[in-house]
Amino acid sequence: MIIKWLTGLIRNKKKKEKIKVEIEELKKAILEDPKFRDEILRELEYRTGRRDILKAGVLGLLGLSLGLGGSYAYNASVNTNTVREVASDYAGVKIPKPSTCIVAQDGTGDYDVSPREDASEVIQKAIDDVHRKGGGEVKIREGKYYLYNTIYIQEHIIFTGCGQNTLLILGENVSRSVIESADGKTYRQVIIKDLKIDGNKRYNHDGCGIYCRLWDSIIQNVVIQNMPRHGIDLRNKGLGNKNIVGTRDDNKIIACSIRNCGGVGIYASPVLKIIGCDIGHNNIAVCENAVRIHACNIYGATIWIENKEAISIMGNHITTDGRAKAGIKIFAKNGFNCRDVEIVGNDFRGSASNALIDIESQSNCLISNVIISGNIFNARNNRSSSRGIWIRGNGIIKNILITNNIFTGVYEKGVFVNKANNKSNINIKFENNIVD
Fold it and tell me: What is the DSSP letter of 334?
């Protein structure tokens, strides 16, 4: 009995393995042989009359290969493009194939440009070609690329260089932004990373490093310097954009270096995260994973948050050199609101003529739900700072929690100064802070 039982068990196991192999071969045949696939589906459609279920089955079969997850694990070796073509056919929608274009100065790229000629036309052609193919990566090899026109970014584009060895520099008398979103539209899922941008401020009077309307996008490991105006300007209209109904901007700026710009270092967009950065004045060596923003600006602050919501500034080094009015400015004006701001775990150093953090609400405006926690404020950078944190204005300011911070150095007008309208001053707490 035992031998018979073991023999049957072995046969069943071999049978299961054989069926498994046959299923994988069938999957591969369905994917790679269009004629066989159509014959099978036509037969099944004839028997069931349910083409919709068949589509769902094919997509389920392809799900894992497309990176969509799900319980249908396909292990056969199939070309990714084949998978996308089949899924596109039966889903009734186009699933784009990622494309990669390389721009170089040494003749090794898909698009080549001489070191001293205008590179903007070639780079733009690479972006447009990748965009027409459904999105992908445009990689700029090492070199110094002179630009005499703005580069217009498109949706679903990864625009990347080779670190600081890839330099995009404005030519003389250009006075335009280096990178903008095409047609002034809001584009999603854009990544700009691993390159250096120079505005050549000595020979240009206008232009930002990155002046884009972006949604669900990332700017990472980018050095921006010598811009006549702002380093990064993301003053988006994504929340009310006709093309993106009901969405929010949700962008991230990570590990960038912004310095010696004539305007604001970063103009915030809604739902912006500034993470793990070192934001400061000029002539400081760039450290690993750092963002530095030059504080000599005509607009008043290193980081400017105006009429925005859901902003997180966490784990940064923020240095001001006395010429800026504020390290961080939170500002509500013209009837708009500013709310849900987190300033947590940052290291503030230096001085500012107004305050290291300046919170101001104009009449008929609201600033609410601001948390300032776990930061270090050090005003010992050769001069005193006017204030640590300043709250002011005739608008409504409520639900402000300032807790567990450390203040060192000299603040001429006080560590914490609350000059907000008494009638609108609601639930503002300054507690459990250390003042040295």
Answer: T
Q: Residue for token digits 């990155």?
A: 210
Tell me which amino acid residue 285 is. Answer: A
Domain 128-435 has CATH 2.160.20: yes
Provide the pLDDT confidence category of residue 215 given band limits of 50, 70 and 90. confident
Secondary structure class of 248 (helix, strand, coil): coil
Q: What is the pLDDT of residue 151?
A: 97
Q: Residue 78: CB partners within 8 Å, gap ≥ 6?
A: 28, 31, 32, 65
Distance between CA atoms of residues 186 and 215, nearest Å? 7
- Answer for the pair 292, 257: CB distance below 8 angstroms, yes or no: yes
Delimit the domains of the chain by residue range. Answer: 2-91, 128-435
Q: Tell me the DSSP string of 254-297.
A: ES-EEES-SS-SEE--SSEEEES-EE--SS-PPPTT--------
Q: Is 40 helix (H, G, I), strand (E, B) or coil?
A: helix
Instruction: Report whether 336 contacts 350 (CB < 8 A).
Output: no
State the SS3 of 47-85: HHCCHHHHHHHHHHHHCCCCCCCCCCCCCCCCCHHHHHH
Residue-wise pLDDT for 242-284, tens only, equals: 344 334 567 888 888 787 888 777 876 655 666 555 454 332 2
Q: What is the DSSP string of 377-407?
A: EEE-SSS-BS-SEEEEESSEEEEEEEES-EE
pLDDT at residue 400 in the model: 96
- Comparing CA positions, the residue from 406, 424, 324, 426 lying closest to residue 416 is 406
349 pLDDT band, cuts 50/70/90, is confident
Q: Reduced to 3 states, what is the DSSP secondary structure of residue 18?
A: helix
Tell me what pLDDT residue 19 has.
Answer: 61
Q: Which pTM was predicted?
A: 0.65
Q: Which residue has the higher pLDDT, 381 or 190?
A: 190
Residue 164: φ, ψ to 5° = -70, -5
Q: Higher pLDDT residue, 155 or 285?
A: 155
Tokens of 433: 């802070």
Residue 133: closest CA among 92, 101, 170: 101
- Neighbouring residues of 37: CB distance < 8 A, sequence distance ≥ 6: 29, 30, 31, 86
The answer to whether the CB of 362 falls within 8 A of the CB of 332 is: yes
pLDDT (mean) for 57-64: 51
Better pLDDT: 351 or 393: 393
pLDDT single digits (tens) 315-326: 877 877 766 788
